[in-house]
Input
Amino acid sequence: MKKVLTIALMVLVCVWTSAQKADDLALTPPMGWNSWNTFGTNINEHLVKDIADAFVDLGLKDAGFEYLVLDDGWMAMERDENYNLVADPVKFPNGMKSVVDYVHSKGLKFGIYNCAGSKTCAGYPGSRGFEYQDAKLYAEWGVDFLKYDWCNTENLNAKGAYQTMRDALHATGRPIIFSICEWGDNEPWKWGEEMGHMWRVTGDIINCWDCTVGHGTWSSLGVWPIIKLRKDIRKHTGPGHWNDFDMMEVGNGMTVAEDRVHFAMWSMLASPLIMGNDLRSASKETIEILTNKEVIEVNQDKLGIQAYCHSDEGDIEIWAKPLNDGEWAFAFINMSDKAIDLNHDWAWHPVKDDLSNRSLEVNNKVYKVRDLYSHKDLGLTKTKLKGTIGAHDVLMLRLIPTE
Ligand code: GAL
Output
């Protein structure tokens, strides 16, 4: 009897442990860098090492960025004779393990890419049918993050395919962030919490303020089309499971003001903050934006609430995000291409978030108003908020109760 009970218990434990994602990972939105936006498949060992060095030297690691993720293009075109994936021998002559070791030696974590289909989007070997074997290999290499794409997945059920890889990762025993990338096609926000730690909510981002560029079967979207398309799925995001608004285009060609807005909004939306620019040649302004700890603190707030659009009358949009300890973050965005004077009376604008049931109590409490880009205190909510916001620029604030 005792033996039967023990076996039953073991089976139960196996079933239980095989059906989970790694817990306690991504309790705040993951922060890192990904190769795709700037380099496409043109990646190699030197680039990874240079980027890892830049992470540390430019203060990005200190600011909280942690994961260095190699996207599509790292593999050889064929698996080896044992069907293991192989790093491209020309791009990575010392193999992938040595690259991972280098990244770890800088105190960073390493992420890699593959796809649920038979081939990746760029035509390299996909994981379909090799999920457990690939997950084991990543764990042996010391991989900490897997971005898992959705090309060439004919007849696959998305939830099932991501579940298989989730279980394969879990079976390795290594804590690996699982980043679902199926572009929002199968509404991953409805099932993603169980499967992974973050999920892309749209097709690929492109470096523009408000454009959509068609590519036949799919379109890439600028910063505002992405935000507008997915502003209403906020209830699905939270600690351990995040709506992923895509790798950022900060430093990739928009104006500095637009980059400030982009970074502010990804922070307000509690999106993972994954840089997508060439850190080796980044301008001083770009690094200043990316290392802005006061903005990053809004993104990393432990409540993990995605901001909502409080008002969008005229050319100014006001986005609001409740923070821990009764604090609030606000982003006043000038959507127009001319500077606008602001004259905002807090008392006249009641703020209530129905989703989190939190309100800004400006009539009972006094809040200190902190400008997160100029790093200055702007007074109290008792007085009107005045100032000028440049074209396509942002005034990002943190409101802190004074008593
Ligand atoms: C897309 C994905 C991009 C990038 C690319 C690689 O499907 O959305 O972020 O990973 O594949 O081929």
Residues 11-18 have pLDDT under 50 and may be disordered. The longest helix spans residues 2-18. The radius of gyration is 22 Å. The first strand starts at residue 31 and ends at 34.
